[in-house]
Amino acid sequence: MKPDVDQILNQSAGQLLGTIAPLLPTGYAQGTTSLLAFMMLMSAQEYERAADIRAIENAEIRALFAELGSLADSGLRARLSEAAATKDNSLRISTLNAANDELRRLLIVLQAHLEERPGAGARDAERRIWQVLKATAQRRLVRLPAG
Amino acid sequence: MSDDLSQKLQRYLAEKLGASDLRVTNLSRIPGGASRETYRFRARYSDANVAKDRALILRRDPPASLIDTDRTTEFRAYQAFHRLGLPVPEPIALETDNSPLDRPFFIMEEIENCSVASILLPDPYSSYREKVGEQFFSILGRIAAADPDEIGLGDLEGARECCWQHETERWERVIDEDEREPQPIARAAIRWLKRNPPPPAQKISIVHGDYRTGNFLYDAEGSIRAILDWEMAHLGDPLEDLAWALDPLWSHGDSSRAAGTIAREEAIRVWEKSSGLRFDPVAFHWWEVFASLKGLGIWISAAREYFEGRNPDPVNAFSGWYCLAFHNNVLAERLSERVA
């Protein structure tokens, strides 16, 4: 039995906020210590969810590329098809981030491309991209306890 | 606190104020954002045989700044609006040379016995919410009403024509230079802003640039005593400041209350009355989207400073994490409505 990382971070933040910070001189030292404690709370949240968020996001963007590829010009279509076929072979955050960067870069190209295209199909595709971007942004929001 | 800094400051001020008996005491660092190191101290000296004991603030450039802001602009804005009678601290001295304190700095009066609201607090103004809100949006209107040329700030950075374009391109450059990973929401926002320009500004004003909760001091009776942090002041559309002040990030978790104070409609009414300007909802919508994009620019820049180790202040890490995620979400909501 060992304490989980998020528990260590949460309880350490509680110690800093409740016990250590009040002993420090008011001003920069106290304010900075409290902020560091808040970021430990954020880190605890991230420890639990970081891999999940990235894996879901990468899968959603790949699915989007597979779904919308037919609307793109041939050069872009090939890049989308190739990206849609990639997989996350590791759950290390750095690896997931690297894949996420590549997928996001291509998503920007696709979205800009569709915005220039006329027609209802392109508008529907734009809406689909925004659904994914909204879900992404929601998932990455940081929930803080009231300070 | 470093005796070395205290002694250097003492030498500088004694010469600047012509007071050889000047003594600097109680120098201590206080929170003041990541773009300047902020210290409070007391200066005791005699002036024409009258003993003075002044509470002062030192704002010194950090080794690297969050946004490349100009302390000369900030100092001049304090001078201009202090003369105009707005609640701002009296500026005392500006030094752009590195030699006195290793980095450029300026000194101003400290407004004592006041509070600054943290954005993490759910209801910082409590029973003074209405009073603070009325003043906050009224002062913003007075800034918008001021004539930049008449108050000596007509040469500030910014554009008198197509200021929307100037500002969009400015923040696009910041994102181009500082982003550490692709930002699809920011890029979509930039494209939208360029494709859908707002109507021309009703007038060109001084834009404070960071007018929000957390950047003013209020006392125990809920009176606003000082508007701070003018480092991003520039010429532009006064709606830029109004949109930033009304941005949800500064609402203390309750989007129905502007800046955590009064109802949004009331805030706009107070601003219109004080500024003499008309609230144009179409133009304002553009500036709302811009405000969140500008937020992303600031937070992306903060993350870069932290990542590069140029400015390890934890405010930069917090901004580049919490605030970035917040504004990505706000922009995704706002822009997705446009294509829905």
Outline of the structure:
With 147 residues, chain A is an all-alpha fold.
Describe this structure in words.
The complex is a heterodimer of chains A (147) and B (340). Chain A is mainly alpha-helical. In chain A, 76% of the residues lie in helices and 0% in strands. Chain A contains 5 helices and no strands. The mean pLDDT of chain A is 95. Chain B is an alpha+beta fold and 340 residues long. Chain B folds into 2 domains: 3-109, Phosphorylase Kinase, domain 1 (2-Layer Sandwich); 126-339, Aminoglycoside 3'-phosphotransferase, Chain: A, domain 2 (Alpha-Beta Complex). Chain B is built from 9 helices and 11 strands. Chain B has helices at 3-17, 71-83, 129-145, 163-178, 184-195, 238-245, 264-275, 281-308, 314-339, and strands at 23-30, 37-47, 50-60, 91-95, 105-109, 205-207, 216-218, 224-227, 234-236, 257-258, 262-263. Chain B has a 5-stranded antiparallel beta sheet with strand order 1-2-3-5-4, sandwiched between helices. In chain B, strands 6-9 form a two-stranded antiparallel sheet. In chain B, strand 1 (23-30) and strand 2 form a beta hairpin. In chain B, helix 5 (184-195) crosses helix 9 (314-339) and helix 6 (238-245) crosses helix 8. The mean pLDDT of chain B is 93. Classes of the chains: A mainly alpha (147), B alpha+beta (340). The interface between A and B is large, with 37 and 36 residues.
Question: Topology of this structure?
Answer:
The complex is a heterodimer of chains A (147) and B (340).
Chain A: H1 5-20, H2 28-68, H3 74-84, H4 93-115, H5 120-140
Helix pairs in contact in A: 1-2, 2-3, 2-4, 2-5, 3-4, 4-5
Chain B: H1 3-17, E1 23-30, E2 37-47, E3 50-60, H2 71-83, E4 91-95, E5 105-109, H3 129-145, H4 163-178, H5 184-195, E6 205-207, E7 216-218, E8 224-227, E9 234-236, H6 238-245, E10 257-258, E11 262-263, H7 264-275, H8 281-308, H9 314-339
Antiparallel strand pairs in B: 1-2, 2-3, 3-5, 4-5, 6-9, 7-8, 10-11
Helix pairs in contact in B: 3-7, 4-5, 4-8, 5-8, 5-9, 6-8, 8-9
